[in-house]
Amino acid sequence: MKNGWIREMFSFSTKERRGIIILILIIFLLILTGKVIPLFIHDDPTNFSKWESEVNAWLDKTEKPKLTEIALHPVTFDPNSIDSITLANMGLPLKVVANWVKYLGKGGRFRNKEEVKKIFGMTPVLFEQLDSFIVIGNNGAVALNKGRTSSRIKPSTAPVQDAPIRRNDIPAEKIALELLELNSADSAHLLQIRGIGTVLASRIIRYRNLLGGYYAINQLKEVYGLREENYSSVAPCLTVDPSAIKTLNINFSTVQDLGHHPYIGYRTARKVVKLRDKTGRFSTADELSSVIAADSLKKLIPYLKFGP
Questions:
Q1: Does the global pTM surpass 0.85?
Q2: Tens digits of per-residue pLDDT, 142-165?
Q3: Residue 108 belongs to a domain with what CATH number?
Q4: Is 249 helix (H, G, I), strand (E, B) or coil?
Q5: Using an 8 Å Cβ cutoff, are 106 and 120 in contact?
Q6: Distance in angstroms (rounded) separating the CA atoms of residues 201 and 187
Q7: How confident is the model at residue 223 (pLDDT cuts 50, 70, 90)?
Q8: Is 240 in the same domain as 251?
Q9: Domain containing 191 — which CATH number?
Q10: What secondary structure letter does DSSP report for 301?
């Protein structure tokens, strides 16, 4: 009687016995099927050779640009008087252009070709492409004319301009005249040049104030109302001192300060400030390439300051 509950636990009715037997048979059949099926199905090893060859081909394509140096299309130039537009047009990276202009802006000068190598970002391959095109005038002794009170500079000390106008193109009666420095000239001086009237002189000065000064004569082409024929007759009478331009500190300028500049505008200025708030201070011009168009950025580089 004491073990009666054990007997009751293992006592089954006829239906229960049949169900247990059927369940055991099903389990046995499933185990047997799992053992037998692999004997009739043969898994062929997967061939990954085609996939591996495609991956290797893709890796080769992505690695090649890293190993290929930039191909330049240089022209003959003086490294002490070249401007950022010419450097960029030759195909130099924006980082090298910015460092080059910054070096000249601080009063640095190249006494020989080898010193060009010290520009940060200048690789041996880049220098090799530029080497035969570098011509240093007067052994690197370039007159800066800083602190000059007169707005006129003699032709012998005028820096090389990027405008495609040669001295032979200047009318004979104008050769004897002194060149007019564009960043320090007032309306009275501009009116002395044939082809510039009262309205045009006012626009040239107004645009100069918006830019912060001219760094190249060909920027006059951007002045409203100055036609190509006017520019051709006016340009030989002018020179420009790039050291007189006013720079914008890109890391501290407000949207209003940046938007006021003709090469930026308010829409782009808001993008610049938004990017600056997101990523922190800028250290090179390339960091602005995502928000400023390449053409505008090339022209804007001489006006940018990145330090404190």
A1: no
A2: 333 333 333 333 433 344 344 444
A3: 1.10.150
A4: strand
A5: no
A6: 6
A7: very high
A8: no
A9: 1.10.150.280
A10: G
